[in-house]
Amino acid sequence: MEARHLRYAVALAEHEHFGRAAGELGIAQPPLSKQIADLEREVGARLFDRTRQGVFPTAAGEAFLARARRALDEIAAATVDAGRAARGETGRLRLGFIASALLDPLPGVLSRFGRERPDVRLELHEMATSRSSPALVAGELDVAFTLGPPRGAGAEHLVSVPVGHDHVIAVVSTVHPFAGQQAVSADQLRRQPLIVSAGEDEPAVVAGLRTLLGTDSSALGGATAARDVHTIIGLAASGVGVGLGPSRMRAVPRPGVRFCDVTPRTPLPDLVLSFAARDHSPVLRAFLDTIRKNCPDVGAALNDRLRHHT
Amino acid sequence: MEARHLRYAVALAEHEHFGRAAGELGIAQPPLSKQIADLEREVGARLFDRTRQGVFPTAAGEAFLARARRALDEIAAATVDAGRAARGETGRLRLGFIASALLDPLPGVLSRFGRERPDVRLELHEMATSRSSPALVAGELDVAFTLGPPRGAGAEHLVSVPVGHDHVIAVVSTVHPFAGQQAVSADQLRRQPLIVSAGEDEPAVVAGLRTLLGTDSSALGGATAARDVHTIIGLAASGVGVGLGPSRMRAVPRPGVRFCDVTPRTPLPDLVLSFAARDHSPVLRAFLDTIRKNCPDVGAALNDRLRHHT
DNA sequence: CATGGCGATATCTTTGAGGTATGGCCAGCA
DNA sequence: TGCTGGCCATACCTCAAAGATATCGCCATG
User: What domains appear along chain B, each with residue ranges and CATH number?
Assistant: First the structure.
């Protein structure tokens, strides 16, 4: 049985007349008669009563037509749904990100993406760089914000694009002596109780701080450890010490704290967007496009990537 | 787009391999490649990723396949449903009947039919013969039990089959003097307070009673009128008088009453089963078949009718 | 570098959908 | 009662396209 048979039966039921139904279908009457006869033979039951007054479905015909109409609706919807999925209007995006990404690029990116693609299901997973890389390789994530380029086995199958540069800044309570300063020096910091990251991404941050304070610095050893940037800011606000973290902390103004530059300017690993090189999913492409529109200093690699698939 | 395209896409998704899917479909690999290519062109999106590891649906393909599977399910169900409807296993039967039919043939017929055709929706409408005939002609009923053959305009398009003969019997309270008698005479009845039908089918019954009691009988004029046989029996049980009604009253034994034959035996119009002559509905046929199996003294016309359609 | 497996392409064959002409049937009508 | 017209079915032909066979190009293996 073919969709043609369903279309012909539905048209015949609608027009109650072989000739007019055939005309509507753009075919002649004899082929329609034959197709309906073939259909009735295949179904094993008479589907239409041919009377002098018109052609009307039998009980079997009514039962058949109800299913036929639903089948035709599904077929029509199949094309529509496939088109929407192909354009990235529907689907799913599994996004991994480090906690600090929630400060700066994510709020803007997610709200814009949610507006542009309301029917895409977003799955957000906060995770350290060390976990998101294998998840991308294994296909458990579609895209991830990581601290520095992804590392580990299979990383060569990932594309990485820096979406923002980063350096160390300090955060202090408004009543702290540093609060009025534009910048604080490494020397000043060495004489303060410090609050630093202790999350899984710690090594990268600690490396930056060692560069800043000197490898012999004992200040780092006595520093308070916090799991993520939000905790660092909170502890600094309550006067526990001077928080040190990525410059993206500035993106979330918060009463009770001030941010200070740190001299010398100490770079941290870039915030990087990674995804599988062979992932051509239109939803991913749409997400990358949103990133490009939302992050002015996005790397050239992303533009290349987008141009490549347009 | 044809059902073939859906079947091929589903098979390809299942086997993840053009060659094996084609083998399963009973065709060679090149035609399958072409059909899938045609499908992708018509949908306007790539539906499968051909990789070295296998053939996998894209996001668009997944969306398409979900709809395709449902469409194919509907198509398969269409044939099944049509077959069931053609065999009269599903559908609807609108049955009109006079109240007294509830006494005798209906309980057995309906319980048997309900067991044999559990998926047929039964619509029961108690109505007088004068109403069921036009309803049958207008197609608002499928079949009806009437008192005597249907009358009125269009009755020639109806088939009528007597399903039981009927005559007048008397019903009295167990404490009534008649209670011990096998039969009562017209003379005895003329000297008793009577309870007779006053429903829409009254004329037929009254005509029978006039035959019994004589047209000059004043007893009928003073009789208590009851709308249906159940009321006649109830009034007789409470001692209001002697109930006169169809012999089918006997089918419902009820404590507190006795039934007596009436002499001379006075026939009433037969209980008749009627339906539209051109109605070949399988549900109707199944119902007639049940009637035949349940009513031993069914008319030859019904057997003819059933044989005609076997 | 050779090999084998896989999907795409080219070309031919054959099925069957659809067109035209016509037949059979029945209601309406003179 | 025979005629006529409308309607669906049948007969037969045509041609598009589904499918078969042969082959190519590609790439991951050894």
Answer: 3-86 (1.10.10.10), 91-159+270-308 (3.40.190.10), 165-269 (3.40.190.10)
